[in-house]
Amino acid sequence: GTPASLSRFRGALVGAVLGDCVGGEFEGAEEVPMESVVQHLNSLDDETKGTGILEYSDDTAMTRCVVQSLLGRAGFDERDMARRFAKEYSASPSRGYGSGVVQVLKKLSSPQIKDVYQPAKDQFNGRGSFGNGGAMRAAPFALAFPDLTDIKKFARLGAMLTHSCSLGYNGAVLQALAVHLSLRGALDLPQQFINRLITEMEEVEGDEAALRDARILKEAEKPYCERLHRIRDLMDRSKVSIEEVIAELGNGIAALHSVPTAIFCVLHCLQPREGLPETYGGLERTVAYSLALGGDTDTIACMAGAIAGAHYGIEAVPPSWIRCCEGAEDADVSGGLLHALYHRTPQEG
Ligand code: F2R
Ligand code: MG
Ligand code: MG
Predict the structure, then answer these.
(1) Could you tell me which of 60, 41, 80 has the C-alpha nearest to residue 288?
(2) Which of these, 15, 150, 259, 278, could form a disulfide with 305 (CB 3.0-4.6 Å)?
(3) So what's the ipTM on this one?
(4) CA 303 to CA 17: how far, in whole Å?
(5) Is there an atom of ligand 1 within 6 Å of 299 CB?
C-alpha cells in the first residue's frame, strides 16, 4: 500500500483524542439529534473559549500510557505498561473508567505483583472483561509496529492486561488492524479494506479460546467476522438509518458492540452524507456521525477518530478542535515520535 506518512501518524493519535474529548458530552445518551452534535462541534470554533476546555477521559488517559510505554521501552514491555496504567489511575481516578477495570488497576499498583496478567483474569468470576477498554487504547500498537504479526500479538497482550475475555482483547486486535490498514491507504478501496479485515479476523477468531468464549457468551462462532459481514451488507445499501446501524452493530460499552460500529462510521463517512453539514471534511463527518449514534460516544468516536485520522492525516483536523481538546497537542507530538519508532532500522542480533 501507500507509504505510511508522518501526517497519517499524527492524524491517528490526534483523531483519537478529539473523538474522546468531544464524545464525552454525549456518552450514555440514548438519542442524540444531529443538530445537537453540530451545535457542540461548532462551539469548538469559538476562539474566546480558550484552550483545553474539553477534558479527555479514560480512553485517552490509557492511550497515553500505551504510547509512553512503547516509546520509553522501544517496544512492548507488559510490566512497564501495567505500571503506567496503575500510576495514571491513582493520579487521576476520575477520568470515567469502567466500574470493573478499576479493580484491576488497583491490583496492578501493588509492588508485590508477580503476574501482571492475573488481575484481569480474575474479573467477572474468572470470565474476564469483554468491555471496550482494551480496544479504545489499541491504536498506538499500529503506529509502533509495521509488521502485522507484531501488531496482532502486542495489541492482544496490551489489552489482556485488563481484558482477558477474547471478546475484549480481539476487539483491540481488530481496532489496531483497522488503523494499520488505514495508515497504508487501504481505505481508498473500502470493499477491499473490509474484506482484508474479515480475512485477518477469520484467523484471529479461529483460536481455541476465542471459539470457547463465543460459545459461552452465545455469540456467533466468530463474532467479529459476523459483524464485519454485517458492515459489508450495510455498505451495499444506498440508505441506512441510525436506528438500523444501532440494531445491526450496537453502540454499547462491549467491544463487540462498539469496535465494528466505529469501523462502520469511518466507512460510511468516506463520502458526504445527508444530514451532515456539507462544509465538513471526512474526519469531521466521521466524528459527528459517531456522536449521533449515542451510547458509548466517547469511545466509538475515539476509535473511529483514530482510523479516520490515519486515513485523512493531520491536515484534515480543524486547528480549533486541537486547541479545545485536552491532550491533543501532546498527541500530535507523540504521533511524530511513533512515526520514528515505526520506521527505525531493526537492530541486528
Ligand atoms: N465507564 C465509562 N462510562 C460510564 C460512566 C462514566 C461517566 N462519565 C462517569 O464518570 O460517571 N466509560 C469508559 O468505560 C468503557 C471502557 O470500559 P472497560 O475499560 O472495558 O471497563 P470494564 O469495567 O472492564 O468493562 C465495562 C463494563 O462492561 C461490562 N462487562 C464487561 N465484561 C463483562 C463480563 N464478562 N460479564 C458481565 N459484564 C461485563 C460491565 O458492566 C463493565 O463494567 C469506555 O466506554 C470508557 O469510556
Ligand atoms: Mg471514556
Ligand atoms: Mg466510553
Answers:
(1) 41
(2) 15
(3) 0.96
(4) 9
(5) yes
Length of the chain in terms of residues written? 349
CA distance readout (Å), 10 to 51, 203, 285: 19, 30, 19
Cell numbers at residue 180, please? 494499520
> 134: CA distance to ligand 3 center in Å?
11
Residues 6+ apart with CB under 8 A from 101: 123, 129, 131, 133, 162, 163
What span, in angstroms and rounded, lies between the C-alpha atoms of 262 and 177? Answer: 13
Cα angle 160, 72, 283; round to 5: 70
Rounded CA-CA distance 245/223 in Å is 17
What is the per-residue pLDDT across 183-239, written as a single tens digit (0 to 9) for each?
A: 999 999 999 999 999 999 999 999 999 999 999 999 999 999 999 999 999 998 989
CA distance linking residue 94 with residue 134, whole number of Å: 18
Domains in the chain, please, with CATH? Answer: 6-342 (1.10.4080.10)
Residue whose CB lies within 8 A of the most ligand 1 atoms, among 30, 66, 97, 163, for a mutation test: 97
Contact 21, 292 (CB under 8 A): no
